[in-house]
Amino acid sequence: MWPYLIRRILAVIPVLLVVSIIVFLMLRLTPGDPASNIAGDAATTEDIAKLRVQLGLEEPLPVQFAIYIKNLLRGDFGESFYYKRSVISMIGDSVEPTLSLALFTIVIACVIAVPFGTLAAFKQGSWLDRIVMGFSVVGFSVPVFVIGYVLIYIFSVKLDWFPVQGYQNLSEGIAGWAYRLILPSLALSVIFIALIARMTRTSVLEVLNEDYIRTAKAKGLSQTRVLLKHALRNAAVPIVTVIGIAIAILMSGVVVTESVFVIPGLGSLTLDAIQGRDYPTVQALIILFSVVYVMINLFIDLLYTLLDPRIRY
Amino acid sequence: MATETQGPELSEPILTVENLTLALPKNADRRFAVNDVTFTVLPGEVVCLVGESGSGKSVIAFAIMGLLAKALTVESGTINLSGENLLQCDEKRLRTLRCTRMGMIFQEPMTALNPVMTCGEQIDEVLLEHTELGAGERTKKVLSMIAEVSLPEPERMYRSYPHQLSGGQRQRIMIAMALILEPDLLIADEPTTALDVTTQAQILHLIKELQSVRNTGVLFITHDFGVVAELADKVAVLKQGELVEMDKTNRVLSDPQHPYTRMLITSVPKHEPPVKEPIASDAPVILKTEGMNKRYVSRTFTFGKTEVAAASDISIEIRKGETLGIVGESGSGKSTVARCITRLIDVSKGKILLTGTDIAQAPQRDLHSMRRKVQIIFQDPYRSLNPRRTVGQSIVEGPMNYGKSRQEALKDAKELMNLVQLSPDVLDRYPHQFSGGQRQRICIARALAMEPDLLVADEAVSALDVSVQKQVLELLAQVRDRMQLAMLFITHDLRVAAQVCDTVAVMSEGVVVELASAKELFSNPKHEYTKALFKAAPGRDFKFAEFTT
């Protein structure tokens, strides 16, 4: 187990190296100039050239890259071209809303999807099963922003139950924090409910045909116990895998949801940074996202060993 | 052995199945899964339900437990468990009865236990559901039950997950689970079919022992007349859902009345090899291995490498027209030998001489011509034919690969179909349109189409019913004699080996422990392991009825 863990954590290093090279090159090889963006419409060519020198963009690419990697290795992600603040502190400020949104979304998705998926499998072919499957198809096909605006229209504009947009920090009170998160999380979770419910149904259906389910029934166990204790736990590995994938996909969903609901999180930060060609910020964000990706995967793999005693590393 | 105790005759039956008829769904190949079946099980009595696949024997068991598949419906009849009609019980009542009054064990101990729960927890669940005992008392009772099914170190067994135990140990856990509340009736659905013969003997012994101590009535489902002879007081023979014969075991086995029972009993391969012409000593040697070895090496991050010898120092020889049998239990290395010889896996050391050429270390690209000479027939005819190709396509593919024209290959395929006693007209059908026995015939035809020198049959008849098994064995012998093939016959079944092999190698733990002519080996086994295998074979001492059909 420990050797495995160490190996997996060490494997993060080459991944990050490749990611940093790709993101560095992609930013510099795509058209658009941060200097002219910052300088604004009224700037002269000299102004822009001066700014480019200031930002270190006049150096040859290999030199820029060497500086970038050197700083990275010291844990220095640099300063934002715009705000002249350390990128790390900017990310730190935006982490809370995004983390809250992601957590809320995934909890809502699991709490709804897993029981309904299980029930749909148990009552295969029933009206409940059909509704769950129907919802799955719709949930998959409708984009997040459409769901977001529809929810805003119904629950905020028409019914006036929820605010139209905005975010409240956790430090200002948990009730307000949760209240403002419900609508965006709901919008974002629809696709994940669809995904997880479908996977749960398939997985449980498969397990329900296994011999040990028949054994459990032959022992005279109640249906609830057969379903929860025997079926669901055995079906868990694929379900957990898909939840892991969901968390990974979530990050792209967050960008859209945050702009629909005007939440000042990492998604908004990423969007602004890319539009403004704020190289250091984009680089740091992408590296952060890939670390999160890799860690989620590792966590899921470790979770397998808890769920299934046959899996050992 | 079937013994007649004085007790059972006097007492009331615990199970009475009367005129039970179960209907199959409309599009099935027959109307009833079970038709008008009547029998009883007395306390302390072992009743065997015998029949081939599809005879409805398992369906009856599930009907009793109330676990019938939804597609099957009860048409008429009653199932009385100590006076209570189970067919009229609701789900809740049935749940209460399961494990308290009727317990069941299944065929596959591998899959019948929940892989993510410890064995102890799984037994404990029964007590949790059906008794008011506290946690401490339950654990104590589970541990004593584990000890009672003769498992070593009950505490460790309690904590173990199913995959950490052997097949036999898992079946013991199942038995502990089924019997912990001392039900009146134990239903055993082929509980030893998936086990090795020595393990089978132990499990049969255990069931017999626990059953007589507790006076449990047992409904034992099997296809194996050896097991019947070993265990049953009474036998009921089922054919296509109908009960054709039922009586005391002794009577049915020594003097069967119904033609179907007679057919089944004559199909059971005998322990004594038939008298055969010896192979001419100057017949050319087709296959010879010298000191063949197969080791599996696994390297781990921390512990360096571990080595497992799957087969060591195998030296065998097969002549033209000869059949060499390799007999052994699971894990003995017999399939490893077959795979090495066919070069499906790489050999670690030693020589494999195929018609004089050493192919042991030949690189893959040089094996092309050798592949034609060696053909293999696998155990499961359901999975060894591509379901999306017609059997004709499957048969002609090989010869065409070796340069035959389609017309020629098809012409040969038609002749081969005649040889394996199938109509040449069915070449354009798909595998699912055939029965298991027919599919195995097709597999044989496919192998023969390559005109091989050596035919390797890896458990080729193990998945078949006895009557079909007999036919396929006869076909194999016929083909071998007519085409003068050398045959390597891998099997776990001593009786089958006795019937087809000229020479038999007994394998245990990767080593050939005894190699002798079939006649010699079966009449005078020398090695301890061979003797133990013979002793474990169920029904060996029983004198079955013999017919001259």
Layout of helices and strands:
The complex is a heterodimer of chains A (313) and B (549).
Chain A lengths: L1 H9 L1 H18 L4 H6 L5 H11 L5 H13 L13 H36 L4 H15 L2 H15 L15 H35 L2 H8 L4 H38 L5 H10 L3 H29 L6
Helix pairs in contact in A: 2-13, 6-7, 6-9, 6-11, 7-9, 8-9, 8-11, 9-11, 10-11, 11-12, 11-13, 12-13
Chain B lengths: L14 E9 L8 E10 L4 E5 L6 H9 L7 E9 L2 E2 L5 H7 L4 E4 L3 H4 L6 H12 L4 H14 L5 H6 L7 H13 L5 E5 L7 H18 L2 E6 L2 H7 L2 E6 L2 E7 H6 L4 H9 L17 E16 L3 E11 L2 E3 L3 E5 L6 H8 L7 E6 L2 E2 L9 H6 E4 L13 H11 L4 H14 L16 H13 L5 E5 L7 H18 L2 E6 L2 H7 L2 E6 L2 E7 H6 L4 H9 L13
Parallel strand pairs in B: 3-8, 3-9, 6-7, 7-8, 14-19, 14-20, 17-18, 18-19
Antiparallel strand pairs in B: 1-2, 1-4, 4-5, 9-10, 11-12, 11-13, 11-15, 15-16, 20-21
Helix pairs in contact in B: 4-5, 4-7, 5-7, 7-8, 8-20, 11-17, 14-15, 14-16, 15-16, 16-17
Characterization of the model:
The complex is a heterodimer of chains A (313) and B (549). Chain A has 13 helices and no strands. Chain A has helices spanning 2-10, 12-29, 34-39, 45-55, 61-73, 87-122, 127-141, 144-158, 174-208, 211-218, 223-260, 266-275, 279-307. In chain A, α6 runs antiparallel to α7 (127-141) and α11 (223-260) packs antiparallel against α13. Chain B has 549 residues and is an alpha/beta fold. In chain B, the strands form 4 sheets. Chain B has a 6-stranded mixed β-sheet, sandwiched between helices. The relative contact order of chain B is 0.11. Mean pLDDT of chain B is 88; it is low at 1-8. The interface between A and B is medium-sized, with 24 and 31 residues.
